[in-house]
Amino acid sequence: MKAGIKALINWYTKKRPLSDDDGQAAVESALVLPLMTFLVLGTIQMTMMQQARIMNEYAAFQACRAGIVWNADRDKMRKAATVALLPTLANTSDAVHLAKTWAMFEAAGTLGDALSKLLGFLPGGISNAVKIVDVDIMHPTKQEFDSAGPLPGGKELDFDKVDDDKARDANRLQIRVTYLYWMKIPFANWIIHDAWMATRAGIRYSGPVDKPMSRPDPNHWYNPSGGRNRNATYAAALAKEAMSKDWERLARMTAIALLATKAGVYLIPLESTYSMRMQSNVYRDNLQY
After folding, report:
1. Is residue 14 situated within a structural domain?
2. Which residues lie below 8 Å from residue 252, measured CB to CB, with a gap of 6+?
3. Which of 9, 35, 70, 211 is deepest in the core (most CB within 10 A)?
4. Distance CA 66, CA 89 (A)
């Protein structure tokens, strides 16, 4: 009797042998899991980026509004844009949290300061002028200012001068706000960042989402045999940026690449433009180009 019960228990508790379907399910899970993880985390990160992009458009409006009444002063415009973007950085639900967030942002200072704190040194070629939020004056240029007939002394342009086409055009302020948005969602942040850098370099990625591979291109020094080489991709993106001879943008891109490779901080520049008619005299010394 005891032997029969024992045999029955052994039969009942005996492990079911693995079938071919079990191995197939494991392989399919290994292939699909990274993609599903990226879809979830990537959706969250892209939604946050979209919110930051909308806020950056509002920041461009606020910066331009400050510029037209403050003689196109870049510092005043940068502060106005920063205040508009504070909700994307930290809690600003009340006056106390708003003050803390502003103090935190001001303490961070420039990207050069951030690199020094994170890496322990300031890499060569990175300018302390690279800011997390920056404003560029696209219009008017100094040449357009000079041709518009400035006031005696040549230092400012009367914003009420409407009897001349060149003066009217020179009194239109157009700016560009660049916000270096910090992507903080793990896994999704470096995948999106690497894809963006590859786009800047003109490299096409393919393959698994967590291990993308670039296609071979014998015509380019940075990617002759394809494969995965983040440093080569970043170097190619910087080389392409250098061709534009916009040294501020090159310094910004260099800082972004160094923060990604050395500190695991993934930034993407968001840009928005806005234009308004001047409500104060434009000062020539405030113009960039």
Report:
1. no
2. 111, 130, 134, 178, 180, 269
3. 70
4. 21
